[in-house]
User: Fold this.
Amino acid sequence: MKYKNALPLTAALASLSMLCMPVVAADLLPYQDKNLSAEERVDDLISRMTLREKAGQMSQFVGLEHIKESESKLTAEQLNSSDAHGFYPGLRPADLLAMVEKSEIGSFLHVVNIEEANELQKHAMKSRLGIPLIIGIDAIHGNALVRGATVYPSPISAASSFNLDLVKKSSVETAKEMRANGSHWTFTPNVDVVRDPRWGRVGETFGEDPFLVAKMGVATVEGLQQTDFTGYDKVIANAKHFVGGGDSINGLNIAPLDVSERTLRQDYFPPFKEVLDAGVFTVMAAHNEVNGVPSHGSKFLLTDVLRGEWDFPGFVVSDWLDVDRLKTLHKVVPTHKDAVHLTVDSGMDMNMHGPQFAGPIIELVEEGRLTEARIDASVKPILLAKFRLGLFDNPYVDETLRDKVNFNSEHQQTALAMARESIVLLKNDNNVLPLKNVKNIFVTGPNADAHTTLGDWSLEQPEDNVTTILEGLQQVSGNKIKLDYLDVGKQVKVLSDEQITEAAKRAKSADVSIVVVGENPLRFDNEGKTSGENVARAELDLYGRQLELIKAVHAAGKPVIVVLINGRPISEPWLSENVDAIVEAWEPGSFGGQAVAEILYGKVNPSAKMPISVPYSVGHIQSIYNHKPSTYFKRYVDSPTKNLYEFGFGLSYSTFTYSELSLDKNSINKDGSATVTVKVTNTSDVAGDEVVQLYINDNYSQVTRPVKELKGFKRVSLGANESKKVSFTVTPDLLAYYNLAMQWGVESGDFTLMVGSSSRDSDLKTIQLNVK
Assistant:
C-alpha cells in the first residue's frame, strides 16, 4: 500500500491563522468586525455596495489557467459547444483580474492549484470593499480534479456500500483537501433519482431509489458542511440538479423531463427536501426542461417550492451555460437580456459561467424590470457563505498545507475501506471465489491495468497514487501464484483479432482467468470515454469487442471471472448465463485494484448491494424495482420479462438466514409507531457483513403505489454462526404518500412490511401492519 506521512489535520489547518490578513483601517467598519455575527456583517456590507458590485457577486467565471488550457487544446468551434471547457472571447487574463479588483466577479470555478487561488484572492483584496472570492470545484468523490488528491469511490459505488458513516467520513476528508487547495464550494451531492441507466451521469448519483439517494445525500452534506460550515476545514455543498436529470425522455443529458406533479413530489423532490433539511446551502438548477418549462426559468421550482414551501435560505446557481440556453436552446425568450430577467425573476442567484450576466442585471434594474431588493436577496446568502467560511478574515491558503493534507494516510485508509465495501459480488457459481488452490491465473482486459477505476470527475493522478486491478492482484497474490498478464491496451473501444486470439490461447494454460472489462469514464481521455457527463449510450452492452474477448477466454474451458469497471449498469445476459463469477466493481477509486484483489482472494468478504437495477436489455427500461403493480401484468414475447439483477442484491462468502420476523404491535394510529424486528443469522463459518433492508407496500390505496418501497437499511456484522436481532421503527412518515387530492398523509388500512437481503420477493420475509 502506498502511504505518505500525514501532518495532524488540526495542526495543519491551524497554520492558516498565521497567514497575512487583509489590511484594514484602524477603525473597523462593522462588516470587518469579527465579533459581530455573520448576518450582521452581511447587512452592513450590502448597505455599502453599489449595484454593479452586487451584480458582480452573482457572476462566476472559470479560472485563468483553465482558460489557457482550453484555448490550447480546443478549436474556437469546439470551445463554443463545450460543456467542460470555458473561455471568454475578447477577455484576457489581465482583463479578468481587473474585473476582480472592481468586484465585478464574485466566484470562480475550475481553479485547481493554490497559487492561482491565492493570486485571485490577492486581486480581490484590492477591491474597494475587499470582498473575497468563493471558489467552486466539482469535488464529486474526493477533490479529484486536483492532481495528488485522494480519489474515493464514485457516488454509485458509495451507494452500494449502504454505509452512511463512511460516506460522511470521506466527505469530511474531501472538505479538508479542498480547503487545503484553495476551494470552498463543491458541486455535490447529485441527488438525481436515476430512472434511465443509459444516462451518462449514473455513476455520479446514488442510484434509483429516493430513500437511499436521500440518505446518501444527507451523509454527504453533513460531512462537507458540518452544520453551518463555519471555519477553515469545511466547505459548502450543492444539491443538484433540480430536478429530474436522471429521467430524461431518451436518456440523454439536457433532454426534457415530462412527468406528473405527483411523480415530481413523490419520487424526485424528496431527496432534495431531505438535503435541504440537512442544511445544504446551495442548489443547482437542472439543464433540462420540466413539463415544458426550463428549470432555469421555472418560478415553480426555484421560488414556489424551494423558498416558498421549503424555506431554503441559501442560493441557487445555474448550471453551465444554461441561462443563455433559455434563448438559444429552449427558445422561451427572444434575447439574452430576457433570459437573464427570466432566470433571476424565477429565483436564480448566481450564473455559472460567463461575462454576459452582470451587465444585463444592471440594465434590468435600471429599467425597472428587476428590483434592487430582488438582487439583494441573491447577494445576501452569497456574502453570508463567504463570512461563515472565514474568507473575509483570511481568504488565503498556506501553500505548505497541500502536500500535508492531500492523500494523507488517514484519507487513504478511508478510500480503501469504502472500496472494499462498495464492490458487489453478482455471481459466484460453484464457489469459484474466493480463489483457492490456484497456481496460474490469466489476467487480461482493457480495464485490467488502467486508471478507469478513478471514475468520472477525476483528472490524471500520479501513478503511485493509483492501484490498478493488475497491481492489486500482484500485491495480494504473493510469490506462489503465477500471474500471466496479456496487455490488450487501455481502450474499451479497441480490441484486435490478434489480441482476442492470443487471449484464447493463453487462457488454456491457466487454472482460472480474470477478465477486466467495462467502460472508460476518464474525462482526460476524451476519445476513449464511454461514460460520464454528456456520454449517454443507446445500448447497455459491453462496448466494442469486449464480449468477444470474454467468449474467447471462456472457450478455453477454464473458470472465468469477469470484473466490471463501470459507471452505469451493463446489460449482458450472456455473462450472467455463462461465466463463473461476476464482480461489479463500479468506479472504486485510488485503491480500487487492491480492494478488488482482496475480495477475489477472500481477504475481504464482499458485502455491497446494488443501488440500481440491471435491466435484461435496453428494451426493458424502465427497469426499477419500485414499479407499479400493473407494470409486469403482461410479458414480452421476444425476451424474458425480468431484470438481470435487482436493487439491493449482492452476494457474500457468508450465508445469512432471516427468521422470527415480528412486530411489537400489529396496529398503530396515524401518529403512532411500531417496531419491526428480525433475527439474522450467519449460517457459515466465514464472518461477514449483511445489509438488512426494510420495504413497505400499501396493500390498497386511492392512488396506485409501488409494489415495494425501501424505508430502512442497516449494516450488521456477524461472526461465524452468529445471530443478531435487527429492528426498524416504522413511523407514519414512512407510510405516507400523496393521495387523490394531492394531500400528503397516511391512509387507514393494511400495510405489508418486508425485511430481507434484497428487493427480490424470494429474499424477503413479510408481516402485516394495520393503520387505524
Residues 1-25 have pLDDT under 50 and may be disordered. The chain has three domains: 51-403, 421-645, 656-771.
